[in-house]
Design goal:
Elements lengths: L11 H8 L1 H5 L5 H13 L1 H20 L6 H17 L7
């Protein structure tokens, strides 16, 4: 682990990586940006844990909700997405 940053302080690289996590998982970043975040995840165990959790959650949802997404889940996801988009303005780096 070559990255010697203070994760308790949640430095700017962690903030950037976590802010771009969903676009990273969706494959919607440039190759350069994906490589940047990939390198950060290789060097930062706490951010990698968040990434692994989100990736696994997506896989479970994809497997379990193939035929029809329950309305309650659809509503909860929509509410979370709306709250997240209101809480954080989009960044120009993603």
């Amino acid at each position: 682990m070559g990255d010697a940053h203070d994760h308790d302080g949640h430095d700017a690289r962690c903030e950037e990586a976590l802010a771009a996590l969903y676009t990273f998982l969706d494959g919607e970043l440039t190759d350069f940006r994906r490589a940047e975040i990939g390198h950060h995840l290789d060097d930062c165990s706490p951010c990698l844990e968040v990434f692994d959790f989100e990736a696994e959650l997506r896989m479970v949802i994809r497997q379990r909700c193939r035929e029809q997404v329950p309305d309650t889940l659809r509503e909860r996801v929509a509410e979370r997405l709306a709250a997240a988009s209101e809480a954080e303005p989009p960044t120009a780096n993603t």
